[in-house]
Amino acid sequence: MTLSLYVLRKFLWNIFRIQLAFLFLIMIIDGVEQLRILSQYNAPAKDAVVLTLLRSNSYIMQIFPLVIMLASLSTFVGLSRSSELVISRAAGQSALRLLLVPVTATLLIGAAMTALYNPIVAATVRQADVILDKYNVGGRSLVSLSGDGIWLRQGDTESQFVIQAARASFNGTVLYQVGWHEFTPEGHLTRRIEATRAQLLDGEWVIRHGKQWLFDAANPESVPIETEFEELRLPTKLTSQEILKNFAPPNAVSIWDLPTLVTQLEASGFSTHRQRLFIQSEIARPIMLVAMVLIGAGFSMRHSRFGQTGVMVLIAVFSAFILYSMQSIAESLGAAQEISIFLAAWGPPSAGILLTMGLLLHLEDG
Questions:
Q1: What is d(CA 48, CA 344) in angstroms, rounded to the nearest whole number?
Q2: Helix, strand, or coil (residue 309)
């Protein structure tokens, strides 16, 4: 028990100091970038600092697997160089039993990051968007969901359209039971359109089987002119990719609220593949972190007298990057529906654990 607590203390300390070093780098690099961007809008420096702090949570979540691997590597290289691993083996303590404590701690940390830290990251991502929206950096959201269906916004300097639809096709190019409201830049209603269907083509909306009411903006109390039409075309700069991209990204929604968002998207007719993949990836996060711990341990538990410690460290870092890249590729394939969501989320971490466990068993038992 004393040895296990000793290894755990070293492992947690290494996680803390490595994460602190990465946070310092993030604050410097991203802080300079945010100062450069916001300086174009004459924003105060404090907004750039606040924005950097908010964005740092998302970066911490992304790089944490690497932090875990480096902490594991640092812990076991230190134990190997001080001959503590040799002493523990001589006392009958196997390397695999030593790994039980950091692996258990990593599982708990990974579960805490998914259940507790993920909502914090989502809240800070949304707050960062609020600050950027204040200076109109990156544009405003064009799409939102509510109990009434889908709401879109499009417009230019001459008019603004607010579009509401009961549901849409999976790629957002066809809207059903759709209503349009056209406003002047001053906010006066000039036209209302109701139709059964609207299709987004190249540079225009094609609205079919509907009615439109024309209002006199100068005299709002006047009776609107009502007409029916079979087909009406309205120019637009929206594209299917813009509509899908403008939904809240999965990392901006708490893991606890994502199932509700998935239900709303499915009821509206949109594809929920990206959101469901993100949920599975977050649930699989502890397994991915365990794989990183085993990679760090697998290449650092040899006694330093065998030499080539530096080479083994480089191989461990390279292996961690390969696993991280495999996960990114698998998630991209999963998002494109080339492979199943379960395989995309759970395949790379499971493969990493199996391969590193084989390496550890080989080194331990020969």
A1: 36
A2: helix
